[in-house]
């Protein structure tokens, strides 16, 4: 009886901080229309009920986030959310993607009018790191009926795989019965050595798929870069952190995309399934983006465009949790990420486009004057600058000047009025990188200087690190002085 009372006491001690945290977060939402003073008083009351200093620290962060993002003044630029409202079938589902009319085993639409071609089926599929081979076994018969060749691969050798996974032999047999191949000992970061020009039998793949890549073992801190800021929203949303969301093996994703890009057919696609928030494409703040795997950033470095993302519902047996035959949690809203080689036709949805930004400072001429060929109103509106830059960047890169400000004489102390523009390069159909964007910035300054005098002490500054378009306007609202 005494032991039962002690156990109950221990359980209550553990639950109390969690319940207090839940109370604090709920109170923030309930009183978001009230004054900051009311919300803060409720939060302080909940904070005093918490038992541990770690819980107080989390609450302090939550309070800052609540004050900032529940402001009575809404964002000036609201981002579209329709792209996330409809759940599309993933590659593991038997249906047809209704939104585009495209079979799940066909290439992305390549026609300029956006129509699909259902007969444009892929010819082969390479599945990497398939755990106990359940995913490949699940799709084997369907691919056979479509005359699509499947290459199912795992990292372990055959003996080790049979020893670790109880379904290894049966899944291998099922894949073989459909006329497909199972290849053991394939490192997904070294695909060219097995299938590329370095191999004895080179082959290019129309689709390469890697579902939920992760490093084996409990923790590999050399390759993972977890951040509390990135994990915090997961705690709030689901009150648990799945193993694959708690670590960030960016190096694995980077090396896989580099490897896969070298054995991808010209119209081929790389499909990578990641837990919700891991890819970073839907990040609405730089903090959230930096805490993700920055998937589109790595893709761009290897000439790949993140062409689409959609919810992924895994309908096969999940295994290989830390290298053993055990299922793992995917967390909330896992997403499929589709990478392609740019062809000038496939265009990424705006909310996942990768961007770089920089400021451009030009000297505004006297009233009623002109600067070579540009009138003052053209300069101040940003139209002249935007038109010049759009002719500099390659086709497939969109230029925006979303914010601007005129600095008066007393603000510059230079005897001139200065027009400051925020210039943004967006990767629509072309995978830009920071180094590319900085080259465009240098050319921009040269070409603009031919038309409008530049503020020389602000020229030559490197562009920002890449970020998703969704985080652009919140960044303007909170962290720049431009409007």
TrEMBL record:
Key words, A-Z: Signal
Ranges of residues in domain 25S rRNA (uridine-N(3))-methyltransferase BMT5-like: 126-315
Signal peptide region: 1-30
Domain of life according to the entry: Eukaryota
InterPro entries: BMT5-like
UniProt-listed Pfam families: BMT5-like
Entry protein name: 25S rRNA (uridine-N(3))-methyltransferase BMT5-like domain-containing protein
Organism: Cyclotella atomus
Taxonomy of the source species: Eukaryota, Sar, Stramenopiles, Ochrophyta, Bacillariophyta
């Amino acid at each position: 009886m005494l032991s039962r009372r002690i156990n109950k006491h221990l359980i209550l001690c553990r639950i109390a901080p969690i319940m207090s945290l839940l109370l604090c977060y709920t109170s923030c939402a309930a009183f978001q229309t009230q004054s900051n003073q009311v919300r803060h008083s409720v939060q302080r009351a909940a904070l005093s009920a918490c038992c541990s200093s770690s819980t107080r620290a989390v609450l302090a962060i939550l309070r800052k986030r609540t004050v900032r993002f529940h402001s009575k003044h809404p964002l000036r630029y609201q981002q579209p959310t329709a792209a996330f409202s409809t759940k599309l079938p993933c590659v593991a589902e038997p249906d047809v993607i209704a939104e585009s009319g495209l079979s799940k085993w066909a290439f992305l639409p390549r026609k300029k009018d956006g129509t699909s071609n259902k007969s444009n089926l892929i010819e082969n599929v390479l599945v990497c790191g398939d755990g106990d081979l359940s995913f490949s076994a699940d799709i084997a018969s369907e691919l056979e009926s479509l005359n699509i060749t499947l290459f199912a691969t795992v990292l372990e050798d055959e003996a080790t795989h049979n020893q670790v996974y109880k379904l290894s032999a049966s899944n291998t047999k099922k894949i073989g019965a459909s006329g497909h191949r199972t290849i053991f000992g394939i490192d997904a970061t070294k695909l060219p050595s097995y299938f590329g020009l370095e191999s004895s039998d080179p082959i290019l793949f129309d689709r390469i798929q890697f579902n939920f890549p992760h490093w084996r073992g409990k923790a590999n801190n050399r390759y993972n870069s977890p951040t509390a800021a990135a994990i915090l929203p997961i705690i709030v949303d689901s009150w648990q952190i799945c193993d694959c969301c708690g670590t960030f093996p960016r190096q694995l994703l980077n090396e896989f995309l580099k490897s896969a890009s070298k054995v991808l057919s010209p119209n081929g696609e790389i499909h990578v399934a990641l837990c919700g928030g891991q890819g970073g494409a839907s990040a609405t703040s730089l903090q959230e983006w930096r805490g993700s795997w920055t998937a589109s950033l790595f893709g761009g470095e290897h000439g790949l465009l993140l062409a689409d993302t959609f919810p992924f519902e895994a309908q096969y047996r999940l295994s290989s949790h830390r290298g053993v035959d055990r299922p793992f949690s995917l967390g909330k809203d896992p997403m499929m990420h589709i990478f392609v080689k740019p062809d000038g036709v496939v265009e990424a949805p705006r909310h996942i486009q990768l961007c770089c930004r920089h400021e451009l400072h030009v000297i505004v001429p006297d009233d009623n004057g002109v600067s070579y060929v540009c009138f003052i109103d053209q300069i101040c509106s940003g139209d002249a600058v935007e038109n010049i830059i759009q002719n500099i960047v390659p086709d497939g890169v969109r230029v925006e000047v979303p914010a601007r400000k005129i600095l008066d004489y007393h603000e510059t102390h230079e005897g001139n009025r200065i027009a400051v523009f925020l210039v943004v390069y967006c990767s629509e159909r072309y995978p830009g990188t920071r180094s590319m964007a900085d080259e465009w910035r240098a050319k921009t300054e040269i070409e603009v200087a031919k038309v409008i005098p530049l503020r020389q002490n602000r020229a030559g500054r490197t562009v920002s690190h890449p970020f998703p378009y969704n985080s652009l306007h919140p960044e303007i609202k909170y962290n720049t002085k431009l409007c």
